[in-house]
């Protein structure tokens, strides 16, 4: 049941991405090209998605727990540090070069287009490189603040929700 | 400035579906709908990977459902060269790993949770994406 529902949720996400234009690099890049050929559509994608999620989460998170798990796995990390901002800045450069972000590219794999596949392979390679550096090389360069905010089991992905405690405050 | 290919209705509707998927995932499994986190844990996770692969399979099926409903594949026009796609993919992969999320995790779910951390991440990557597009289109090429 969990797997069927997960598949359907992914399908709704993938359909939403397809309809919204987020899978289309030209459209995404035009959104950021305010000085040239501007396409404001992505404001409506983000606006629609954030609004629905905001009210939906308010409703869902009042419940005692999710239907098929014990707890809500919400990110606990609240620190705004160099790792977060530097990583996000690098992500933006890559997004601006390619026109793909992960949420747009993963559904677009379903079109079988070679450009998407090339990007996806590079994306996974980049994630693998970051994981490798973080688990094998980083301890030598680790700064105190970095050590504080990086739980070892998940490598660099503190975004992965921590498996601790009951339902936390909605940060 | 020249406004092109503006599709507010389709984009709003697509955004609503993305939001519904995020809400349903929290309702059913109690998880954040972040493409980065789901992909990373599907590949490298210690356990509980099956539902993540199921979501990824659903995502990849999205364009085919779009084709079934509309008679066309979703439009994908890639202005970037192959080297730019490879370099961009590598940078996105490294960046979202250190930044702990991307447009779906920080930009949608994080902003919806009013997380200052996600707001900082989103503003940062929107800024550097815009700067990169400006440089590649108006400074280097155009």
From TrEMBL, chain A:
Biased composition (Basic and acidic residues): 160-171
Pfam family of the protein (one): DUF6691
InterPro entries: DUF6691
This protein's UniProt keywords: Membrane, Transmembrane, Transmembrane helix
Transmembrane segment boundaries: 41-61, 82-110, 116-133
Superkingdom of the source species: Bacteria
Region (Disordered): 144-171
Protein name as annotated: Uncharacterized protein
Species this protein is from: Tropicimonas isoalkanivorans
TrEMBL record, chain B:
InterPro entries in alphabetical order: Sulf_transp_TsuA/YedE
Predominant localisation class: membrane
Subcellular location: Cell inner membrane
Parts of the chain that traverse the membrane: 12-44, 50-69, 81-99, 119-136
Keywords: Cell inner membrane, Cell membrane, Membrane, Transmembrane, Transmembrane helix, Transport
Keyword Transmembrane included in the entry's annotation: yes
Gene Ontology CC: one annotated term: plasma membrane
Membrane topology: Multi-pass membrane protein
Signal peptide: none
Protein family: Belongs to the TsuA/YedE (TC 9.B.102) family.
Protein name: Sulphur transport domain-containing protein
Lineage: Bacteria, Pseudomonadati, Pseudomonadota, Alphaproteobacteria, Rhodobacterales
């Amino acid at each position: 049941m969990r797997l069927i529902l997960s598949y359907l949720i992914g399908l709704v996400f993938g359909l939403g991405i397809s309809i919204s234009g987020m899978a289309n690099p030209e459209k995404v890049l035009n959104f950021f090209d305010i000085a040239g050929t501007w396409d404001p559509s992505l404001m409506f994608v983000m606006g629609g998605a954030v609004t629905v999620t905001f009210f939906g989460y308010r409703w869902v998170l009042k419940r005692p727990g999710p239907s098929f798990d014990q707890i809500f796995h919400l990110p606990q990390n609240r620190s705004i540090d160099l790792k977060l901002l530097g990583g996000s800045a690098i992500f933006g450069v890559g997004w601006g070069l390619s026109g793909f972000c992960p949420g747009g590219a993963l559904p677009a794999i379903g079109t079988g287009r070679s450009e998407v596949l090339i990007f996806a392979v590079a994306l996974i390679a980049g994630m693998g490189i970051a994981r490798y550096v973080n688990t094998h090389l980083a301890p030598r360069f680790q700064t105190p603040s970095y050590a504080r905010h990086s739980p070892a089991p998940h490598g660099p992905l503190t975004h992965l929700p921590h498996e601790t405690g009951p339902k936390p405050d909605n940060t | 400035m020249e406004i092109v290919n503006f599709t507010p209705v389709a984009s709003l509707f697509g955004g609503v579906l993305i939001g519904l998927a995020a809400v349903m995932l929290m309702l059913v499994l109690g998880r954040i709908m972040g493409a980065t986190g789901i992909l990373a844990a599907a590949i490298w996770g210690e356990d509980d990977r099956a539902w993540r692969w199921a979501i990824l399979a659903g995502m990849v099926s999205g364009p085919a459902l779009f084709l079934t409903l509309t008679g066309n594949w979703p439009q994908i026009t890639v202005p970037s060269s192959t080297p730019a796609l490879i370099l961009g993919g590598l940078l996105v992969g490294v960046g979202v790993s250190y930044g702990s999320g991307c447009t779906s995790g920080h930009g949608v779910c994080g902003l919806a949770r009013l997380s200052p951390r996600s707001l900082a991440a989103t503003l940062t990557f929107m800024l550097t994406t815009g700067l990169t597009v400006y440089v590649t289109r108006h400074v280097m090429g155009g």
